Amino acid sequence: MIEAKGLTKHYGAKHAVEQLSFTVRPGFVTGFLGPNGSGKSTTMRMIMGLDSPTSGDVTVKGQHFKDLHWPLHEVGALLEAKAIHPGRSARSHLKMLAQTNHIPMARVDELLEVVGLTSVANKRAGKFSLGMGQRLGIAAALLGDPEILLFDEPVNGLDPDGIRWVRNLLKGLAREGRTVFVSSHLMSEMALTADEVIIIGKGKLISQITVEELLSQSTENFVRVRSPEAAKLKLALEKEGAVVALEDDGSLSVRGVNQVAIGELAATVPVVLHELAPQSASLEEAFMELTEDSIEYHGTTATGTNSTGAKS
Amino acid sequence: MSTVTTSNETTPAALPPGRYSFFDLVKSEWTKIRTVRSTMWTIGVTIVLGIGIGALVTAVTRAHWSGMNLGQRVSFDAPATSLVGMFIAQFAVGVLGVMVISAEYSTGTIRATFSSAPNRSKVFGAKVFVFGLLAFVVAEFTAFVAFFLGQFLLSAPATHAMLSSPGAFRAVFGGGLFVCVLGLIALGLGTIIRHTAGAISAFVAMLLILPIIVQVLPTQLSLDVRKFLPDRIGADIITTNGGVGQSFSPWMGMLILCLYAAGLLIIGNAMLESRDA
How far apart are CA B52 and CA B20, in angstroms? Predict the structure, then answer.
């Protein structure tokens, strides 16, 4: 369990994190989602006691991180890939961490095996690729077999095989009842991994929502209806409380009632239907819609989201 | 790969009561310091230059002994001559002192360190202890070997000293201690400045530039300030044939140097506690 209450971090005039409150529960993968520069990493550093909040509070298992007796056995974190001395070997890096918390070398070697670095365990980490650095960081996070795990952008730099491995690892950890908190700026990745997402933009909480809810709540979910008597159908639907828009191509975009209700209503009016097609937004679009106003760094060639995106 | 993360065989047995100890952190810091090449390089340079330059200077002195006049022979300081290499070795120990902490910042290791042991003062204490002990052993080893080798090279008719000669033990032991304390000053600077290049520059400036600046002050003021400078304190501790100008007594100077180190380490620790990692 991770609990943030009114968590705030200002760097001079820049408000990196503003009044952020959320709860990360055990047994689930909770995604921490936001555009670049939205305050995800700062929040994670505050959870780990590395940065002190300007105001507000964050606890792990009801305690401040700094008060934990055996930190590695309670919270494991991958905060940045390749946060390793380039001259030190992977094994030595894990060893120096393990020694602080009474973790035997057998556990170090076991984890090197788990993350697939055994063959390069004694090589200088400076020669590691970003992906290998990520794997080493994941091994470090798992050292003390902790109940709470934080991963900041863990799939960066990994190949497709590695990405799938991380995805399964995170899910497996959650299934074992652990609290898994993983940040990403990629909604598509979170859609495949997370049960729930905490979405922030410009340091503020936008939403804490399950992935299913996010999909169903999206205003981009609508039913496309074609009928030769569109006007008549539109009137009837609006009487039922639906929001209906007449599109340029003559079709109707209906929001607020589902396709079953529309079909039944059409039969009672009656009007002929040529098409009755539920459209659901991709998570990517749902995410874009939520964070539209809070993207700090727009690309100059950014294109708007396609309003009638098909389900991906 | 369902439960790869929790293997019962290697899951640590019951942890000791309490929390991670200073000794746990000392073990970790020892692993850190001995698993990077910069440590081996700087220690190697300390020993080789510290001993080698002393040997070179004493050998050259011996070779020119017959050409020296009586005054030169009488004022010749055999222990100090054999220890001149310490003033080169001090830079290597200083670089190591800076890098012990600045490399943690430049590589990001500091965040892994504080994620495993969030009590920063305790981590810093362990770091100071491990580096201090290592620097002490290396510097004393260098000083004693340089002394004995130097005296051996200063064979008759040149004057040479024994460890029991007046002031000789103080010069040798003090010369080693001087380099060790300078290393702790460098560690303090590294903790405050956090950047390798910046901290090394500050360390070198303290030893080489500060004396030049003090020299251009008005004479009396210059003399008053000069004796507080680390390089003068170092010269005082290895000199056995009278002072090198207006100075503190050798051990008084060493005490002042230790206070500099303590002050910088205390400030460094306070900044470590208050700043974001």
Answer: 43
Quick one: fold of A2-210?
Answer: Rossmann fold (3.40.50)
Any CB–CB contact under 8 A between A139 and chain B? Answer: no
- Peptide bond just before A71 cis, omega within 30 deg: no
Contacts with A83 from chain B: Cβ below 8 Å: 107-109, 111-112
For an interface test with A, the pick among B36, B99, B113, B115 (most A C-beta atoms closer than 10 Å) comes out as B115
| CB-closest option in A87, A169, A173 to B36 | A87
The boundaries of every CATH 3.30.70 domain in chain A are 222-279
Q: Where in chain A is the domain with CATH 3.40.50.300?
A: 2-210
Q: Is A118 on the interface with B (CB under 8 A)?
A: no
Note whether A145 contacts B6, CB cutoff 8 Å.
yes
Chain A residues closer than 8 Å to B127 by CB: none
A16 to chain B, any CB pair closer than 8 A? The answer is: no
Asked if the model's pLDDT at residue B105 lies above 60, the reply is: yes
The CATH architecture that domain A222-279 belongs to is 2-Layer Sandwich (3.30)
A232–chain B Cβ distance below 8 A for any pair: no
Whether residue A92 and residue B31 make contact (CB cut-off 8 A), yes or no, is yes
Q: Counting Cβ atoms within 10 Å, is residue A259 exposed (0-12), middle (13-18) or buried (19+)?
A: middle
Q: What is the pLDDT along chain A (312 residues), one digit of tens a residue?
A: 999 999 999 998 899 999 999 999 999 999 999 888 899 999 999 999 999 999 999 999 999 999 999 999 999 999 987 789 999 999 999 999 999 999 999 999 999 999 999 999 999 999 999 899 999 999 999 999 999 999 999 998 889 999 999 999 999 999 999 999 999 888 778 888 999 999 998 899 988 989 888 777 665 678 889 999 988 999 998 988 888 988 888 889 888 888 888 999 899 888 999 999 888 666 667 677 777 766 655 565 444 444 443 433
Q: Which residues, other chains included, contact A179 with Cβ-Cβ below 8 Å and sequence gap of 6+?
A: A1, A2, A24, A25, A26, A27, A28, A30, A147, A148, A149
CB-CB under 8 Å, A107 with B12: yes
Q: Do B114 and A48 touch (CB under 8 A)?
A: yes
In total, the C-beta contacts within 8 angstroms joining chain A to chain B are 139
